Amino acid sequence: PDPAAAPAADLNPGRAYLAGRRRMRRTAEDAWQAAGRTAARLTETAGSLAVDHVAHRPQRGDLAGRAPGTNVSNDTYLVPADRVDEFRTGVLAAAEGLPGVHVEVTGPWAPYSFSLPPEPAR
């Protein structure tokens, strides 16, 4: 067993509790950082297959999809019609075998994320 995983016998209950909380926080931070690194790798793969990319705010609740867990990336990619299958296959292959990772590729959709509002009249 990892000696850092169990509280030291010489700690009083309050210190043991705080040490446990610190371990839990470190574990959560490590998981969040790993998720961020994984998302960055997937973003790089997807970006290499797309013409443009827009990062949106990660969704929560029902908008985050059907998979359990926390949405850490919510991106839109502009992909030429003749590369849609290559994009989907490439992104899903890049996520394959990554424990705890669920990637959802949808579309094609109209390129709303890449349109600009009209210039104001002068």
Automatic annotation (TrEMBL):
It comes from the Bacteria. It is found in: Gas vesicle. PANTHER family: PROTEIN GVPL 2. Keywords: Gas vesicle. GO terms for biological process: gas vesicle organization. One of its GO terms (cellular component) is gas vesicle. Pfam families: GvpL_GvpF. InterPro entries: GvpL/GvpF. This is Gas vesicle protein.
